[in-house]
Each structure stands twice: as C-alpha cells, then as structure tokens.
Amino acid sequence: MKTLSNHRITTFAFIFVTLFVAVFLTSCSPKTDTRQESDNSATAKPANEPTGDELYVDNNIAVQKPLARGNFVVFPLTAKKMKSIGDFMTLDEAAETKSVVVSEIGENAAQVDTLTVENKSDKPLFLLSGEICYGGKQNRIIRHSMVISPGQKMEVPVRCIEQGRWSGGHSDFMALKKANAPAGVRQAAQQKSQSQQSTWQEVEKNLKSFSKDSSTRSLTEAVADPEIQNESKKYFEDTLTALTGNERVVGIVIAVNGRIIGSDVFSSHELFKRYAEKLLNSYALEALIRKTEKTAGTETTMAQVCDYLLRTKDGKKEDVIDNGPYKVSRVVNGNQNTLRLEMENVGELHENSFETNSSDDQDTAHPPSDGYQRQNGPDDPYYPEEDTQQQQNQSSSPLC
C-alpha cells in the first residue's frame, strides 16, 4: 500500500510540475504576437487592400507608388477587377492590315475639323485621342477617343496639326505608328472652349521647343524626328516595361515638374497595354517641352493623385458623341476636363482627364494667319477667298 501511495504521489507531482511549466511558458510568450494572430484572423483583408505602396480611389482602382525619371513622374493605376469588353482593333493594327480607310469627307467638301473613317474589319475599331493621321489636305489628330463598329463608315472630329498646307499629300491618310501628339496638343484639341487656332498655337510651341522649322508648320515633322523620339524614350523605356509587365495596371497619371498634367484609365490591362507606349510617348514629349519651366517646388503625392481622380467623377456632364453602343461624354469640374468613352452594358472603356485653361474661344476652325507661307505660295490661299465664310460655317463637326 505504501508503495502504491508513493507511486500516486509521484504521478501527481509530475502532473503538477508539467502544468506549472506549461502555464509559465504561456505567460512568458510575447503577447503582441498572440494579438497579432488574433487580429489577422478576425480582420483578414484581401490581398489587394491598401498598403503603404498603394492608395485606393474607389473599391476597384488604386494609385501605386510613382516611377520617376527627371521631371517626369508616372503613377501607375491598378484594378482589382477587369471588364470583359471583347476584342478591339487599334488604328495601327487596322492600318497594318489595310482594314481602315481614313479620308477627307470629299475633295470639294473637305472640312478642317472632320475626317471620314471606314472600319473594314470584323472587329470594333478603337481610336485614341491624339492619334496622328498624316496625308490628305493637311495632317490631323483624332480629337476624342471613340469606337467605330465593324463595317461602319462615319465622320470623326479631328484637329489640324499642319497649319500651312491645304493641298497635295496622299489622297487617303496614314497612321503615325507608336506616336501620339504631345499631351499639350492633345489636350488643346479636346477642349470644347478652344478653337482650332489654340491647337495651332500648341503646335507652334512644340516646333519652337524642338527647334523644328517646318515649312508647313507640321507637328508630324517634330514627333517623327528620330532624335526627338530617342530623347523621349529615355524618359519612359524602363517604365513601359514595368507597366506592361504588371497585369493589374489599367492606367496612368502623369506629373511633370511637380504638377499633374493628365491621366488615362482603361477598362482592362489588355487595352491599356496596346496604347501604353503611345501615351507614355505623348506625355514624355510634353516633359521635354517643359523641362526648362519652373517646378512646383514639391513632389506630387499619391493623395493628390487620388483627389485628382476623384474629381473626374463629379461635375457637369454632357454628351459629345453618340454612336450606337458607344458614347463619348464630357465631365467638367472646375478647370478639370474629363472625356469618357463608354460602351453599352459594359461601362467605361477609356477616360482621359486634364486641366484646362479659361479661354472662351469659339469652337471653330480658321485658315492660317498671313504670317505663314502656303504650300503653293501666296497666290494659292488656304481657302479661296469667296469660300472662307462657307468653310467657317461648315467647320463645326455634327458629332461635337
């Protein structure tokens, strides 16, 4: 009995010591670690929730940390969810396969601010604002992003970027591949309150900045210049690789000299990827033009970018183009101007925003000023004198 009693005492002592050690070790464990595990399990966040590297604008779009090169700063925009929009054809792709015809409205009825675009492909044709079409009576740029349905032929609003010519050239237009008008020209072309003259003024600013002396005042000569393109690419080559390699990226916000100068947001990474180089080139050219300007003195923050994007959601909205399932609208919030391309049953395909100036110029086209040499000399005026008023009356596009 005594042996059995001793055995029980030993057993109880072992159990007591074991429990004591367990309690002691538990009490000595870092309490912060335990709470952290509890917090993580109770408030688990999706992988795409805001971190120190991103700031959400809404429940889908987030601003990422910037990628900077000199005075040129790119804020990538990422999305949790992409929209299913089907396949589209770009202007470059359509030109390569001869699936698009861009031409003057007619030899005798040509208008400065309107071209005819025919989509001969079996896919919707996506036109990006600022894309350059050269040829015809004078080189032009697409004013607003828009979509032309398969087999459709329609009039498209444009702006002239070659003030000193109204004759000659190819009968049809060709697309300038992988190049877009510099951001300042692109933005001037889209503003409702700005005239054709304002676009020409921006073209002159570009030609002067790039030291290009074009006899017909053609922006194309500057944008297509190999040396200028090489300088532009230095700004964005590494950034382009980073953006196109991240399948979450759907857009960009650009700051130059510490100021936001524009943004472009698409419905999917695939659509953004096809236009990334054109857009980065457009903004990089603007950075080259502005590199001697005074900076804002402070760096643009992610919070400022977020506020900028939020302002695109509010404001006065008006329709610009109604082309069946595709619609273009303008949203004005103070001096911020947003052009939005939407697709029926899908929503936004592309949104471009920028700040405008306060000019109240009428939206009309004008012939070149007398200071410029015409293509065929002073005896061959831009418009026949008797037709000038008629051309001005016709200049407002029915789509705008």
List the SSEs and their pairings.
Elements: H1 2-28, H2 31-42, E1 54-56, E2 61-64, E3 67-69, E4 72-79, E5 89-90, H3 91-96, E6 100-103, E7 114-119, E8 125-127, E9 131-135, E10 140-142, E11 146-148, E12 153-160, E13 173-180, H4 183-190, H5 196-209, H6 219-223, H7 226-244, E14 249-256, E15 259-266, H8 269-289, H9 302-311, E16 316-323, E17 326-333, E18 336-343, E19 347-355, H10 388-394
Parallel strand pairs: 5-8
Antiparallel strand pairs: 1-2, 2-4, 3-4, 4-14, 6-7, 7-12, 8-11, 9-10, 9-13, 10-12, 14-15, 15-19, 16-17, 17-18, 18-19
Helix pairs in contact: 4-5, 7-8
Describe this structure in words.
The chain is α+β, with helices and mostly antiparallel strands and 400 residues long. It has one domain (54-394). Helices cover 32% and strands 27% of the residues. The protein has 10 helices and 19 strands. The chain is globular. The model is unreliable at 1-5, 20-50 and 358-400 (pLDDT under 50).
The biggest sheet amounts to: 10 strands, antiparallel
Oligomeric state of this protein: single chain
Net shape: globular
Number of H/I helices:
10
Report the C-alpha radius of gyration, rounded: 29 Å
Return the string of H and E elements: HHEEEEEHEEEEEEEEHHHHEEHHEEEEH
Number of domains: 1
The whole-number mean of residue pLDDT values reads 79
Number of strands: 19
SS class: alpha+beta
